[in-house]
Amino acid sequence: MNAILSNYPILANINSPEDLRQLDTDDLKVVANELRQYLIDTISRCGGHFAAGLGTVELTVALHYLYNTPDDRIVWDVGHQAYPHKVLTGRRDQLETIRQTDGLHPFPVRSESEYDTFGVGHSSTSISAALGMALAAKQKGENRQAIAVIGDGAMTAGMAFEAMNHAADCDVNMLVILNDNDMSISENVGGLNNYLAKILSGKFYSSIREGGKKVLQNMPAISEWAHRVEEHMKGMMLPGTLFEELGFNYIGPIDGHNLDVLLDTLGNMKNLKGPQFLHIVTRKGKGYAPAENDPIAYHGVPIFDPKDNKLPSGKKKLTYSNIFGQWLCDMAAQDERLVGITPAMREGSDLIEFSRQYKERYFDVGIAEQHAVTLAAGLACEGSKPVVAIYSSFLQRAYDQLIHDVAIQNLDVLFAIDRGGLVGGDGATHHGAYDLSYLRCIPNMIVMAASDEQECRKMLTTGYHYEGPVAVRYPRGTGPGINVEEDFSTIEIGCSRTIRKGQRVALLNFGALLTEAQKVAEELDATLVDMRFIKPLDTSILEELAESHDWFITLEENAVMGGAGSAVNEFIAQQQLSVKVKNFGIPDRFIEHGDPADLLERSGLTADKLFMTIRSILD
User: Fold this and answer.
1) Is 369 labeled as catalytic in the residue annotation?
2) 344 pLDDT more than 70
3) Which of the following is catalytic: 369, 453, 455, 557?
4) Is 234 a catalytic residue?
5) Known catalytic residue: 284?
6) Which is the catalytic residue, given 144, 234, 283, 284?
7) Strand partners, 416
8) Tens of pLDDT along 253-311?
9) What secondary structure does DSSP assign to 226-260, as a single string?
10) How far apart are CA 289 and CA 47, in angstroms?
11) Cα–Cα dist 387/123, whole Å
12) Which of 40, 123, 207, 264 has the greatest count of CB atoms below 10 A from its CB?
């Protein structure tokens, strides 16, 4: 037992939900208080997702107390809400390792615990997954519950509504809990709403409701009238008409921090048949005032002192996201046709200043990547110049729209792809490991990868002025520290740049590994070329180098399967060039979370690892 647990006498003895279920209900509020403070104490010492977990403490306690987990299935969506869940399901003492190399995963992962029923690094998948689990239980004749907890904006994605629409046609028992932490509706939560929720979820109301259906089923006209009266009565008092129309029995909203109300309502709803929908309202960052006041800043935190009531500050190098944000404002001042689009990544993609300066040209569509891409296509059809700021792993969710709505129609859409490569603590669900592979096979696409800050700005300008779809890919965090000239210079399409000339070996770099490649090139006295373009390739430099070099070594922070190196291989084979080639990239496996430097080393992409491997090949 770690030393900090001496401050939490009840939590220290909870090693599984079974231990929690042995407690009296009077002790649960103490458990919730201890759990919240334990999260504050621990995450402040190790860093990680912070505010969302503080908002789900009471819900987590209630669910594991009332339901027979892991036999009953709980799917958390989005997964960063699940830190309290990890603490109560046997991982309390490992929490301080979360997001670190070989430590706890930042999101629920099936391989980590039997209580993690579904992997949920992205969002809006829980209702589909829980419905699948409920259908499987029905087919196997198993009497278990399926619960989807969806929140933190995940309800904005169309997939959630697709699943709800299907669930209405399935004769299964399942519960969807909307964890609504939008503070703008907190005034809707109070004694009246809590009372109504308890009444509507209780046996008396349910028996009257179901009994009335049976009595009136042979009287269609009266039955329809009664249904409409019920819906109008509920619609006057409750914001659940939409969910009722989708076939769910809506209950709420209730106070998600009132444990007594949660226990009563959830206890009642366990016995209801068919698709159920519980709307709870919580406060993101609950219990830590700075996080309550600024839940965006405290969404994910570094190590900090909770007694200071502030996060550490200090002058930092510009990140690639900062470079993009500044470029976007500069270009918007030059061209009034520019519009900026993001799927709920304003802060992460650094669109804050743009959203302030150009409010009418800024569109945050919520967690709806498919809509973001097709919205951009529609704008482009009418002469606008849309720039879609999106993470590499999130663009995967809009792949059909990328092909069908943008590329086939050859529309002027610029994709500013952030988080390309290995992103660190968020792990396999968030690594931008595949974009070069899945983009370069699409006709009409121009694909560039930035190797430093100035190159990033030049590529964004180049892509913006190109007539057709363009992707500019850059990594998370900072680059080599190049001072950026805030001009609007461009790059010739398909043109590489030679960094140094050497002997025998040509290192062909694609993107952010240039600094590592430079170290290797010096050691080997190799030629180093920053290729810049994955598509179209600078084939003239490849033909030139093939005449004077024995080896091509390709480097990319992307899946080695089908990536930029594969493009080089294809050209060598097509032209029958007499040169040997070795591709380096992210290996053909899912890379776990951890320190970015550790992940690069484990992938064989640090200068030392590259030099040793290349040296052995040459020898």
Assistant:
1) yes
2) yes
3) 369
4) no
5) yes
6) 284
7) 389, 472
8) 899 999 999 999 999 999 899 999 999 999 999 999 999 999 989 999 999 999 988 89
9) HHHHHHHHHHHH-S-HHHHHTT-EEEEEEETT-HH
10) 18
11) 23
12) 123
